[in-house]
């Protein structure tokens, strides 16, 4: 399990510490990330030209990795704008207002719906499916846009993804690496996922209510406007205003949710998940956008379809603009480094981030309590690349090592590493991983990451303490 660390590893670690410190202090990290990419390139390529080129190439790599998310967010926003401008969205969400009457009901209601949907289809498609529909309801009863984003994020990318009990992608990866049955990991993860979920969501809700009461709440809205306004845009107000008869609006308000429910049925029947599920939702959103725009704008429909699409893409790239340089740096911690610079790392290396995790496991004393703490830290470190899934195999391997050496429960240690990696990297703390929820709600991903930081850290501490008793 040992690994020989190089100067590249230490430079990467130093920049991680600096970036996290700046994020906590609410400072922009783009320049530091670019400097880190340049420094790593200089060590890897050992030429100025190679280092300078590496900055641009890392941006290209990050953009390719994020393109699917950029596309789905842009398309959903474009569709949402035409639904809002035509009044269809208002008609569609009206029945929900009977059940969601307070900010607290909106927070927990959105969170639970997000969790249930994410269990079956993973969080990114779930955000696209429910965010645009439920957000106006939440805003109407006084739940801030950032509060809605926190709920979707913690329940979807946190609770649902860290357990992954339906699709079982995460427990299979960790179980295979640890050499134990998948069922063992799933059973061991259940109390940890419940504890982590309860502590984190309750802490986040309490902090939100406290800050709103004290007047210290920061909503982190993009362009300082409401979330519904972020989806509405302004270009659509030019020319002939969109007009639909009340009857047509009511019919469309019924048909559109049914189309997305049909997507859900298709995902289940065809076992679509991840990118395939997102593609189905995105394609449906494009067709809805085209049909509604043609019905609403009539003679100007052809031009307005393009206008709404432009609005969506402008919004999507505006949100992702500051994220790409940061994502580019953290992607270098995984497969991107070898793809850009070749075989610079040792043959036994599994990427800079994973090497750091292995090195950490190799220098700590071997006992059950230290093993639990190490698995949490290792999982969190490997999650910093923003994937959540890239390092959970490593967590399984290290869990097996500690379990063998100390006589601890391998399944519990494996589940703990899985929970830590996915809560950090799956989309609750790393800004580019939580982009879907932030973009749909029209808030800054950096503000969402900062809002999640304390609840997630408290949750990890309590969950690790619980795991010590379970192993």
* Count of helical stretches: 21
Q: Which parts are unreliable, with pLDDT below 50 for 5 consecutive residues or more?
A: 224-232, 234-238
Query: Which structural class is indicated by helix and strand composition?
Result: mainly alpha
- Report the strand count: 0
Overall mean confidence score, pLDDT: 83
Sequence of secondary-structure elements = HHHHHHHHHHHHHHHHHHHHH
Largest sheet: none
Report how far the terminal alpha carbons are from each other. Answer: 22 Å
Q: Percent of residues in beta strands?
A: under 5%
The backbone outline, from C-alpha atoms, is globular
Radius of gyration: 23 Å
Helix share of residues?
A: over 70%
Task: Explain this structure.
The protein is mainly α and about 475 residues long. The protein has a domain at about 65-165 and about 235-320. It is about 75% helix and about 0% strand. It is built from 21 helices and no strands. The chain has helices at about 5-25, 30-45, 50-85, 90-95, 105-120, 125-140, 145-165, 170-180, 180-215, 225-230, 245-270, 275-295, 300-320, 325-330, 335-340, 350-365, 370-380, 390-405, 410-430, 435-440, 445-470. Helix 1 (about 5-25) runs antiparallel to helix 2 (about 30-45), helix 3 (about 50-85) crosses helix 12 and helix 19 (about 410-430) runs antiparallel to helix 21 (about 445-470). The chain starts with 6 loop residues before the first helix and ends with a helix.
């Amino acid at each position: 399990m040992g690994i020989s660390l190089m100067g590249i590893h230490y430079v990467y670690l130093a920049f991680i510490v600096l970036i996290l410190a700046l994020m906590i202090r609410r400072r922009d990290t783009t320049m530091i990330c670019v400097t880190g990419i340049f420094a790593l390139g200089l060590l890897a390529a050992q030429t100025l030209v190679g280092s300078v080129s590496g900055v641009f190439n890392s941006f290209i790599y990050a953009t390719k990795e994020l393109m699917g998310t950029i596309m789905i967010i842009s398309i959903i926003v474009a569709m949402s704008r035409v639904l809002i401008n035509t009044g269809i969205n208002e008609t569609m969400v009206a029945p929900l207002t009977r059940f969601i009457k307070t900010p607290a009901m909106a927070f927990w209601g959105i969170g639970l719906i997000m969790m249930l949907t994410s269990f079956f289809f993973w969080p990114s498609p779930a955000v696209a499916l429910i965010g645009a529909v439920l957000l106006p309801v939440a805003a109407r009863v006084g739940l801030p846009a950032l509060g809605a984003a926190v709920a979707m994020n913690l329940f979807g990318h946190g609770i649902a993804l860290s357990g992954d009990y339906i699709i079982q992608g995460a427990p299979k990866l960790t179980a295979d690496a640890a050499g134990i049955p998948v069922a063992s990991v799933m059973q061991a993860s259940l109390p940890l996922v419940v504890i982590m979920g309860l502590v984190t969501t309750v802490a986040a809700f309490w902090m939100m209510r406290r800050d709103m009461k004290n007047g210290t709440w920061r909503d982190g809205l993009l362009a300082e406007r409401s979330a519904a306004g972020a989806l509405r845009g302004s270009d659509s107000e030019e020319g002939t205003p969109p007009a639909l008869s009340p009857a047509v609006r009511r019919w469309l308000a019924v048909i559109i949710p049914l189309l997305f429910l049909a997507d859900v049925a298709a995902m289940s029947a065809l076992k679509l998940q991840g990118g395939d599920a997102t593609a189905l939702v995105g394609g449906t959103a494009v067709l809805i956008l085209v049909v509604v725009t043609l019905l609403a704008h009539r003679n100007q429909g052809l031009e307005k379809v393009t206008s709404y699409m432009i609005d969506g893409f402008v919004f999507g790239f505006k949100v992702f603009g500051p994220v790409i340089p940061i994502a580019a740096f953290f992607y270098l911690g995984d497969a991107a480094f070898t793809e850009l610079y070749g075989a610079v790392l040792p043959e036994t290396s599994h990427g800079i981030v994973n090497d750091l995790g292995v090195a950490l496991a190799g220098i700590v004393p071997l006992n059950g309590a230290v093993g639990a703490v190490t698995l949490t830290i290792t999982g969190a470190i490997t999650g910093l690349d923003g994937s959540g899934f890239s390092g959970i195999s490593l967590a399984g391997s290290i869990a097996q090592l500690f379990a063998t050496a100390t006589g601890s429960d391998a399944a519990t240690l494996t589940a703990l590493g899985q929970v830590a990696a996915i809560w950090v990297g799956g989309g609750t703390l790393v800004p580019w991983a939580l982009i879907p929820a932030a973009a749909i709600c029209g808030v800054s991903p950096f503000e969402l990451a900062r809002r999640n930081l304390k609840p997630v850290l408290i949750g990890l501490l309590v969950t690790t303490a619980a795991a010590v008793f379970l192993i």
